Design the sequence.
C-alpha cells in the first residue's frame, strides 16, 4: 500500500523487515534416510508411488525434499472425488506405505490412498504382490514408513477386487481399461 508507506515511515523502524522462521521437520534424518534408500532402489529406473497424503508424508513432500526424485515418481491419486484411482501408481515397481495410514481429509474421502496402503502393509488381497524391502523409517507424529517392491503385475482379478471395495462407497465407479483408472 504505497499511500500507507509514506504515512507510516516513522513506525517501520520498530518492526523487522522480514522474519522467516527456519523450517523444522520432526525426524528429518529419517526422511533423509528414506530418500537415500529410495534413490538406491530406483537407480536403475524403477518407479515408485507414495500411498500417503498429509504433512507427515506425501509424494509432494518427498519431491520438495529432493527434486531429483521426480524422474522416478509416479504421482498418486489422493482424493477420491477428484482423482478416482489411477492404476498407474499400483503399477509402479515400488510402493511407500505408512503405519498407520496418513491422510489429510475426512475419514473415508481418501480411500484411493488408504485401500492400497492397508492391503500392501497388511499383505492381503492384491497386497500380496508386494514384498517389504526397506523400513521402518520413523517419521513425524509417530508414523512409520516402509518401502515395498511389487513382485508381480496386478491381475485383472486384483483390479476387480479393488473396484468392488471402492464400489461400497462409490457404486458407479468402474474400471476404465483405456484410461487405466477406476472412475
Sequence:
Amino acid at each position: 500500500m504505497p499511500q500507507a508507506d509514506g504515512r507510516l515511515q516513522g513506525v517501520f523502524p520498530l518492526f523487522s523487515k522480514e522474519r522467516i522462521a527456519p523450517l523444522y521437520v520432526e525426524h528429518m534424518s529419517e526422511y533423509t534416510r528414506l530418500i537415500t534408500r529410495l534413490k538406491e532402489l530406483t537407480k536403475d529406473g524403477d518407479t515408485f508411488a507414495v500411498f500417503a497424503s498429509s504433512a507427515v508424508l506425501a509424494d509432494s513432500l518427498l519431491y520438495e525434499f529432493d527434486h531429483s526424485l521426480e524422474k522416478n515418481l509416479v504421482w498418486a491419486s489422493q482424493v477420491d472425488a477428484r482423482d478416482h484411482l489411477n492404476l498407474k501408481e499400483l503399477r509402479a515397481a515400488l510402493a511407500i506405505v505408512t503405519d498407520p495410514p496418513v491422510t489429510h481429509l475426512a475419514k473415508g474421502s481418501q480411500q484411493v490412498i488408504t485401500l492400497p496402503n492397508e492391503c500392501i502393509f497388511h499383505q492381503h488381497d492384491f497386497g500380496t504382490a508386494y514384498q517389504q524391502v526397506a523400513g521402518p523409517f520413523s517419521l513425524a507424529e509417530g508414523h512409520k514408513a516402509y518401502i515395498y517392491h511389487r513382485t508381480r503385475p496386478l491381475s485383472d482379478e486384483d483390479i476387480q477386487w479393488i473396484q468392488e471395495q471402492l464400489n461400497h462407497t462409490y457404486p458407479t465407479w468402474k474400471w476404465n481399461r483405456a484410461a487405466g483408472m477406476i472412475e
User: Anything to note?
Assistant: The chain is about 30% helix and 15% strand. Strands lie at 48-50, 85-86, 94-99, 130-138, 144-150, 175-176, 181-182. The chain has a mean pLDDT of 91. Residues 79 and 110 are 5 Å apart (CA to CA).
